[in-house]
Amino acid sequence: MNDEQHSDTAAPDENKLIAERRAKLSGLREQRNPFPNDFRRTALAADLQKDYGHCSKEELEEAGQRFAVAGRLVRNRGAFLLIQDGSDQVQLYVNRKGLDQAMLEDIKSWDLGDIVAARGPLHKSGKGDLYINMEEAQLLTKALRPLPDKYHGLADQELRYRQRYVDLIVNPDSRQVFRARSRIIEFIRDYMSRRDFMEVETPMMQVIPGGAAARPFVTHHNALSQDMYLRIAPELYLKRLVVGGFEKVFEVNRSFRNEGLSTRHNPEFTMLEFYWAYADYRDAMDLTEDMMRELTASVLGDTTVQYQGASYDFSQPFRRMTVFDSILHYNPTVTAEQLSDDDAARDVARGLGIQLKESWGLGKVQLEIFEKTVEDQLDQPTFITAYPTEVSPLARRSDADPFVTDRFEFFVGGRELANGFSELNDPEDQAERFLAQVAEKDAGDEEAMHYDHDYIRALEYGLPPTAGEGIGIDRLVMLLTDSPSIRDVLLFPHMRPE
What's the pLDDT score for residue 264? Predict the structure, then answer.
């Protein structure tokens, strides 16, 4: 058996190894089908470890239970071979006295990375490791490319993203991240279903992109002879369903925004969006707080989240502050009078190095100051409320102060994880705000919203008082798996061409 060790820089050596493996495969083709599909395993490695790991060597020998296992060969330890299946790892013992010569020769030709199978009794070594004492052995798939060096793994971060299949083979931490992601989404679906929310699906290709301020991807439908857009959010369609009488709906949705790549942004991403009739933004905040607390306890076994050296306590009541108050809190030299006056607020913004546009109103200037000076400091779980109407085109105005809306964003560790509000259900107000967005688009803002005539028509049939929210699944997974980049939690992140 060959236990290849190589570095990614040693391309000639790797090519030589690939050539050797191709030669082995060619030899196998002359003898038999080298990719058989008739083996059926009877046990997973994790189940063997769970059910028999506590048994003594003597107990296992006496029981003499036989199992069929299969997986990828990841380590050669002489007489012991280590295989890895989708659950865990288990050893195989090459019993040179119990296996016929032809089978022994076949085993000698195995390479690291091959998919192999074995049958035999389960035993325990002197070191306390479980192993299958092979009575039968079979090569199921010949791996033509060698695995990365067993000691250094797949160290190149970009290569891990580009070749996720290799990353998942050799990096157990990476596998755990994506198992956690699956558990998080499963929990969210269960949580919403238990509260009588109905899961729905809405179009990914839309004639008019809406529900957020973002630059869309454009595609073309040949049969209809028209351009279409990949959705930037499912919001407007979900609210159409509330108009139709589905009063509690949610979607775990994939959305697409034609924006730059960063540690927090990927052109396609996953959100939870839900809409709740006869509720307001305070109800949505309460639900979010409860969900986050239950989620962390369920997935982590603890309500304290450890992320990049910091601790976030989800057991305490989440802090709630308005945009206005948060700016004053984190900018002690700024006064309420300055922040309430357009000219004075602009002076504050310029002093912070913010580039302003003449078309911006006071609300937009306040938001720029907030994003510059406050966001990064929102460490512990915090709801920021009362966003200016100017920057919230789909949110309901506050009855107490029409300058702001009944809207919130949820922050942890200086990152926005959720955005929600009491929905704007006044069709005439919504039409005016769409027109303002169109004016912004005409002025050159590629992220401004389109005017959606059909959505206005839906509102004219009557949208009940409704709360809605979007939660970024990818950023949530980053937080709960201690992952510094969004690429770490996406199986196949977008990359620049090789």
Answer: 80
- Alpha-carbon distances, residue 279 vs 39, 250, 274, 304, 453 (angstroms): 56, 15, 12, 29, 26
Q: How far apart are CA 453 and CA 455, in angstroms?
A: 5
Q: Give CA 228 to chain center in angstroms.
A: 26
Please give the backbone phi and psi of residue 248, each rounded to the nearest 5 degrees, phi first: -140, 105
3-state secondary structure of 37: coil
CB 258 within 8 A of CB 252: no
Query: Judging by DSSP bridges, how do beta strands 218-221 and 226-230 pair with one another?
Result: antiparallel
| Residue 42: how many other CB atoms lie within 10 Å | 12
Residue 97 amino acid letter: K
CA distance 412 to 384: 11
Q: How far apart are CA 200 and CA 218, in angstroms?
A: 24
Q: Phi first, then psi: what are they for 452, rounded to 5°?
A: -105, 95
> CA torsion sign, 447 to 451 to 455 to 460?
positive
Burial letters 67-93, b for 16+ CB under 10 A, else e: bbbbbbbbebeeeebbbbbeebbbbbb
| Dihedrals phi, psi of 135, to nearest 5 degrees | -105, -25
Length of the chain (residues): 498
pLDDT at 224: 92
Tally Cβ neighbours within 10 Å of residue 97: 4
Q: Which three-class secondary structure state does DSSP give residue 68? A: strand
Structure tokens at 454: 């059909």
Decide: 154 and 167 in contact? Cβ < 8 Å. yes
For tokens 């620049």, the residue is 496
Residue type at 213?
A: A
One-letter amino acid of 102: A
Q: How far is CA 168 from CA 7, 35, 162, 177, 438, in A?
A: 18, 22, 12, 10, 46
Nearest to 51 by CA among 121, 130, 134, 126: 130
pLDDT score for 6: 40
CA distance 256 to 15: 39
> Are 465 and 278 spatial neighbours (Cβ–Cβ below 8 Å)?
yes
Let me know: does 165 contact 148? Beta carbons within 8 Å. Answer: no
C-alpha torsion sign, points 295, 301, 306, 307: negative
Domains along the chain with CATH numbers: 11-153 (2.40.50.140), 170-331+374-489 (3.30.930.10)
Separation of alpha carbons 389 and 393, rounded Å: 7
Answer for the pair 164, 491: CB distance below 8 angstroms, yes or no.
yes
Residue 322 to residues 330, 430, 459: CA-CA distances in angstroms? 12, 23, 28
d(CA 256, CA 270): 9
Per residue in 195-218, pLDDT tens? 999 999 999 999 988 888 889 999
Residue-wise pLDDT for 276-318, tens only, equals 999 999 999 999 999 999 999 999 999 999 999 999 999 999 9
Give kind and range of the element (H or E) at residue 167. helix 164-170
Task: Give the distance from CA 162 to its chain's centroid.
Answer: 16
Structure tokens at 139: 């090569």
